[in-house]
């Protein structure tokens, strides 16, 4: 089965080919995880109609295994062994009671009552086809009522909650129902079987009837799968709700998180050949911790996936790719990760928490006196590195260097002579320290833009990420930005373009022939900045978009 989820009353078991992961909440409220290899997999996955029959029988086996696993993994340790036995005896009796009730319902109510009602409504002299249709509708209605009545049992309601939590697939555009959710498929099989058997109205004796019913049921398992597959393929998900609502109950965050844990671990097992299977419930599985961090941040309105990776990787002293290779975490590691997560959830920036950040593959110390370099600024560095190849011995000037991220990243990746200036002496001290840490040679000067430079000194490339936030928009910024970034690096004047006008005007006397001027800009400023460059004699003006398709970099070439 290709990523199929089977719900239980306290968790889910997620299958993918020969691997399975059981994620559950035990009686003490703790999340537990167990992974194992299974031989129960669909062989005829690509064969229409045959796959439906095997999906049904493999699914029944997997569903029963899931129920068994839920009892084995989630025993309450806080009570004595005798009480544990009594607890599970009562639970087993309840499940058996529901099963017996189901058989009695099927044998007596569905087998007897609809027929009597059909004959009563249509009459003995009425149309046989119409009578069979009425009987079929009565059967389906009673079946619907029976399944809905099962919700009076808390065990069944929890099972339906986990089923709904695991039945939706997140796509780039939306969250949609998986039509081939096993319980939904199971319900659809029975309804299809009731409808066909009753409409046929065959009565050839006990053994012939039995063989006919078995044949129709097998056909129903096959056809039901293909119909749901087609519904999925054509995106007609609303049709699934005709049966899916019977086995759905609104899930809580805990239900969704439990499913997310199972899918995370299943994905890691499927992509890592040597990943260890988990059987020790006393350890802290990575997938459980990862899901907890992600959900705590999401509850605080922080939905950027990389933040979860960044927190765990930084605490563990690994890169973001390496953390996915870790099966378990120690209790100490877990505690440290959750402390950082709590601080981040309260609005404190990661850079402020850790005191450093990563930019263009290098590590930079940051503080409240310098602007924390953003991921988008890496695009600015990339563009400068491409253009500097046009010069034999390029000279580059970084205006308003701050932490030194742009200047240091450029100097680290080419042989250019790089000069960086800033009006803040505190920022320059931070930048010089970062240059030493990254073993890079950069000339740092205290200067308000070009004022501290010699009058005749010129450069091949001038690059700047100046303040570009309009003054009136600053109070609207995220509190995290206002608390952690210096106002000097944010305020770009009334329209946010003051520094672009000043720098562009004066850059014409500081650029060599065919020199380049590079800017990082704010959202919606590209048109005005291009206009400023053009008015000052720049040509070949280009705009580069960032990872979110927002115009982020503007550059121009100056010809004398």
Summarize the structure.
The chain is an alpha/beta fold.
Descriptive overview:
There is one protein chain. The protein has 560 residues and is of the alpha/beta class. Helix content is 49%, strand content 16%. The protein is built from 18 helices and 17 strands. The strands form 5 sheets. Strands 13-12-11-14-15-17-16 form a 7-stranded mixed beta sheet, sandwiched between helices. A 4-stranded antiparallel beta sheet has the order 1-2-3-4, with helices on both faces. A two-stranded antiparallel ribbon has the order 5-6. Helix 2 runs antiparallel to helix 3 (128-149), helix 9 (286-299) packs parallel to helix 11 (331-345) and helix 10 (305-316) packs across helix 11. The longest helix has 42 residues, at 81-122. It is elongated. The mean pLDDT is 82.
Features:
four-stranded antiparallel β-sheet, 49% helix, alpha/beta, 560 residues, seven-stranded mixed β-sheet, single chain, 18 helices
| Structure summary, number of beta strands | 17
Overall 3D form: elongated
Q: Approximately what portion of the residues adopt beta-strand conformation? A: 15-25%
* Rg: 33 Å
Low-confidence stretches: none
Strand order of the largest sheet: 13-12-11-14-15-17-16
Number of helices: 18
- Helix fraction, binned, reads 40-55%
Largest sheet entry? 7 strands, mixed
Separation of termini? 68 Å
Helix and strand composition category: alpha/beta
Mean pLDDT: 82
Secondary structure elements and pairings:
Blueprint lengths: L3 E4 L3 E6 L2 E7 L5 E7 L12 H24 L7 H42 L5 H22 L4 H12 L2 E3 L4 E3 L4 H19 L5 H28 L7 H4 L8 H19 L12 E2 H14 L5 H12 L11 E2 L1 H15 L4 H5 L1 E4 L2 E4 L11 H11 L7 E5 L5 H8 L4 E6 L2 H13 L5 E4 L12 E6 L14 H6 L13 H10 L3 E10 L5 H10 L2 E8 L5 E8 L2
Parallel strand pairs: 11-12, 11-14, 12-13, 14-15
Antiparallel strand pairs: 1-2, 2-3, 3-4, 5-6, 7-8, 9-10, 15-17, 16-17
Helix pairs in contact: 1-6, 2-3, 3-5, 5-6, 8-9, 9-10, 9-11, 10-11, 13-14
